[in-house]
Design brief:
The chain has 84 residues and is an alpha+beta fold. It has a single domain (7-83), classed as GIY-YIG endonuclease. Helix content is 44%, strand content 29%. The protein contains 4 helices and 3 strands. Strands 2-1-3 form a 3-stranded antiparallel β-sheet, with helices on both faces. A hairpin with a 4-residue loop joins strand 1 and strand 2. The longest helix has 13 residues, at 60-72. It is globular and about 30 Å long.
């Protein structure tokens, strides 16, 4: 049985200065989709300028829980979330 891909929580900085958080199991492809305008609706209108941070998780459920936790934080604490 092939090993399951790990999931990743990522944080982007968008052209308008806002942060965008998401999860994926293929970060390179997902970032390219955001840049190309074929990713999330938000990043179609506000393309990313850089990847700020990422953290790996063993499965989608864990990544989703971390994403929800990250999105509840104030902007000033979002980068620090990845340092812990």
């Amino acid at each position: 049985m092939p090993e399951a891909a790990s999931w990743c929580l990522y944080l982007l900085e968008c052209r308008n200065g806002a942060y965008y958080a998401g999860i994926t199991n293929r970060l390179d492809a997902r970032y390219a989709a955001h840049v190309a305008g074929t990713g999330a609706k938000y990043t179609r209108a506000n393309p990313p300028v850089r990847l700020l941070a990422q953290r790996d998780y063993p499965d989608r459920s864990a990544a989703s829980r971390a994403e929800a936790q990250l999105k509840r934080l104030p902007r000033a604490e979002k980068l620090a979330f990845f340092a812990t």
